[in-house]
Amino acid sequence: MATIRTIRQRIYHSLFDQHSRSGRRFEALCGFLALLSVITIFFESGIGTTFRLSLNEWHFFLWLEAGFTIIFTLEYCLRVVSWPTPAKYVFGFWGIIDLVTILPLFVILLWPEIGIEYVFAWRALRVIRVLRILKLLRLMPALNGLWAAVVNSRQQLILFYSFIAIVMIIAGALMYGIEGPVNGFTTLSTSVYWAIVTVTTVGYGDITPHTPAGRIVASILILIGYSVIAIPTGIITSQMTSEIQKRRLARICPHCQQHGHEMSAKYCKACGHSLAEEK
């Protein structure tokens, strides 16, 4: 048992521990393959739509897909075997994403009637492979700061968007009463849809107010629309600034205990000792 545990730890440290150089390189390789597989999908879709490919030409894309699937299946199995808590990985967000991205080819091999009789269902299933691009998020440590900022400001964001939702319902109800079915506001849900489109400044033009009172409500919603972008942006920016400041203060020199170094600093500004690499 001790030998198996040691092998698992070595595999995890060599391939998946981002604190090790080999782990970061392996993640970079997996990210590159994920991006390459997504690019292949776009080429397959574009060429297949523009030209009438022969069966042998389609086999080229099938073999590419088989190669990507084998690689990511091996990666998934290694993660399950070597992860400190396999169940946590399997049922976690990344584990589900990794599993979903390798399923389509196995489904078409085990149940080929899906590819023959249910072509549209199969094409919809193939799109799931694009989720492999989410693997690249593992390679972006800066996203940790952004995610922390969103989490820290979740109460303000929930409060703001709850207020916006209430405004949408009230505005929709007003427009339903002011304009009515004659001017295209046939139901309350349609009126709320118009309010959302208006406040986001999209303005499809499929439904427009015709009465002076309706235009006044529309003008108010358009003005409110600017806050839909400005206020959440300000909240998240403020939290990100605080998060960056915390991370700067957390960078302490192991030699002289000086803190407050820049995120890109490699050496202590007081004694010149090398700093730990920012993860």
Report the portion of residues in β strands: under 5%
Secondary structure tally, helices:
11
Rg, alpha carbons: 26 Å
Query: Percent of residues in helical segments?
Result: 55-70%
Uncertain segments of ≥5 residues (pLDDT<50)?
A: none
Q: Tell me, briefly, the overall form.
A: flat
Q: How does the major sheet shape up? A: none
Mean pLDDT: 78
Straight-line distance between termini: 33 Å
Query: What's the number of extended β-strand segments?
Result: 0
Q: What is the succession of H and E elements?
A: HHHHHHHHHHH
Structural class: mainly alpha
Describe this structure as you would to a colleague.
There is one protein chain. The chain is an all-alpha fold. 70% of the residues lie in helices and 0% in strands. The protein contains eleven helices and no strands. Helix 1 (2-15) crosses helix 3. The longest helix has 39 residues, at 212-250. It is flat. The mean pLDDT is 78.
Gist?
The chain is mainly alpha-helical. 70% of the residues lie in helices and 0% in strands. The chain is flat.
Task: Please give the structural blueprint.
Elements: H1 2-15, H2 21-50, H3 55-82, H4 86-90, H5 93-110, H6 113-117, H7 119-126, H8 142-152, H9 154-178, H10 188-199, H11 212-250
Helix pairs in contact: 1-2, 1-3, 2-3, 3-5, 8-11, 9-10, 9-11
